[in-house]
Amino acid sequence: MTHWWRHAAIYQIYIRSFADGDGDGTGDLAGVRDRLPYLRELGVDALWFNPWYTSPMADGGYDVADYRDIDPVFGTLAEAERLIEEAHGHGLRVLVDLVPNHCSDQHVWFQEALAGGPGSAARERFWFLPGRGPDGDEPPNDWQSYFGGAAWTRITEADGTPGPWYLHMFAPEQPDLNWEHPEVRAEFEDILHFWLRRGVDGFRIDVAHGLAKKEGLPDVGPDPDPTDLPYQDHDTVHEIYRSWRKILDGYDGERIFVGEVWLPTPEQFARYLRPGELHSAFNFDFLCCAWDAAALREVIDGTLAAHGPVGAPPTWVLSNHDTIRHVTRYGREDTSFDMGDKRLGDPSDPVLGRRRARAAALLTLALPGGVYVYQGDELGLPEVRDLPDEVLQDPAFVRSGGADRGRDGCRVPLPWRSGTGTGAGPGTDTDTGTGTGPGTGTDTGTGTGRAAGAALSLGFSPDGATAAPWLPQPEDWDTLTVEAQEADPGSFLALYRTGLALRAVRLTGLPETLTWAGTGPDTLCFDRPGGFRCLVNTGGTPIPLPPGATVLLSSAPLEGGPVEGERDRSDGRLLPADACVWLHRDGTEAATEA
């Protein structure tokens, strides 16, 4: 039997920016439900939802105030239950985000901790510690928040006196939970049951490596060992996931865990995927890799080598809600990505970025294992890099004093229809697409923003909506809408639909292996069982296709004239620069999923 999650194509939905069903400018469950047919037709197997829980939205929902209810901005618990049922009716499984490292400062537990006073039992569920220095006015240790600044905030007691400090590895509004406390463990086990009973097919675990801290919370120090940091990757975290896995395995239908695991070595990463722990985890090495044949092969080989010994499927992802969209990244001189230095200001060539992104999409879909598609990847959306300061909401922007522009640029609401505006500002109807035909990918979106107050909706909100989208959409996204791309057989959307459909027929269920079929300085070429071959050209000049093969799909038009009546043959054809092609080799029988 082939387990669905070993080869699934999973679509990430950042609800605030996917589709607005009620016209308030914020995406919601109603908007998702309306577009389930679109997701089915795209060809994905499952949907992963970023947090939909009750939240003050200090960090886009990753500050959870109630894990058992839906935030009113998104809808209701009853709507979520209907969404799960309707998604299943479309053949789509549902994964929800679980945020166990921290909660919101508005969570009832943290409010009880603040009100309880010194020494209260409620404070033991968190990390409250006295400060250093004669007056306790220095943080308890030297840990730094991922969002910048100290990872500690001092409270003021009810009588006005300075109190202890509490730990928050992210924003101050996100206090870290103490996973040494039995009530914390019991609470999250109950939360798992709550959503599993409502039919979810699994959980994406936020900061999966960060729950357990080193005993005593020691300083990081001036010269830390990145493989032995006191705030992440400690052995007791594996005990937590083994206990969770037993809960999951008690439900029908192959429910799964997917981990967000950012760690420096493959050996550390693989421990989370051992039998009885998490089913899979995100492959951030691949996401961060430069558009370079040698670098890509090294990451692919390393990924397969790390997953093989623990029997876990590899996964492949190009973008997500925390990173720069790869259309923009691939247009830069340095095409790699580093979460600590995003280089948002680096120049990016939109035409080059789109060409490489199309090739990367086919490469990703051809690799063994599972694949993730972040909403908008299938439209070729770029990063929006010039959002006005006044609309930015990411806490990283505030905490860094503006030095870090944050992640809002990859979270701009999706464009669905061309030329639709809202009452919050003048709508426009511009169309600069060239429409030059199949495989050209000539949409010209560059990610240029708009002044605050002038708002497009581009079908994100329903007709007649008076509220502007929560982040402004660029004017030139008018050519990148779903509506525009559905009419263009050479669009990004057409490429993704065709690629996902071919993947489902030709690659799903195959062994999680590949065989390299020769590479050059700027080429990747590998075979999968059943005669499938993927060839990638990361260089600047065309390369010849191997003869004796049928062309299945290419990210760009092939060069060289085909023999009359044999347009789908590889003989005499050239693969252009920064392109990818799928081939079926003559004399081999195609593998298909039973």
How is this structure best summarized?
With 594 residues, the protein is of the alpha/beta class. The protein has 14 helices and 20 strands.
Characterize the structure shown:
The structure is a single chain. This protein is α/β, with parallel strands linked by helices. It has 14 helices and 20 strands. A hairpin with a 3-residue loop joins strand 15 and strand 16. Helix 5 packs parallel to helix 6 and helix 11 runs parallel beside helix 14. It starts with 8 loop residues before the first strand and ends in a 9-residue tail after the last strand.
Keywords:
eight-stranded parallel β-sheet; alpha/beta; 20 strands; single chain; 14% strand; 594 residues; 14 helices
Low-confidence stretches: 424-454
- Average per-residue pLDDT, rounded, comes to 91
Strand content: 5-15%
In the sheet with the most strands, the strands line up as: 11-10-9-5-2-1-13-12
Helix percentage: 10-25%
The largest pleated sheet is described as: 8 strands, parallel
Task: Using the alpha-carbon principal axes, give the shape.
Answer: globular
Question: Terminal Cα separation, in Å?
Answer: 10 Å
Please state the CA-atom Rg, rounded to the nearest Å. Answer: 24 Å
Structural class designation = alpha/beta
Count of alpha and pi helical runs = 14
Total strand segments? 20
Compile the SSE list and pairings.
Layout lengths: L8 E5 L15 H6 L1 H7 L3 E4 L3 E2 L11 E5 L6 H13 L3 E6 L9 H9 L11 E2 L22 E5 L5 E6 L14 H16 L4 E4 L30 H14 L6 E4 L6 H6 L8 E2 L2 H5 L4 H15 L7 E3 L8 H4 L20 H17 L3 E5 L20 H5 L82 H5 L5 H15 L8 E2 L6 E6 L3 E6 L5 E2 L4 E6 L19 E2 L3 E7 L9
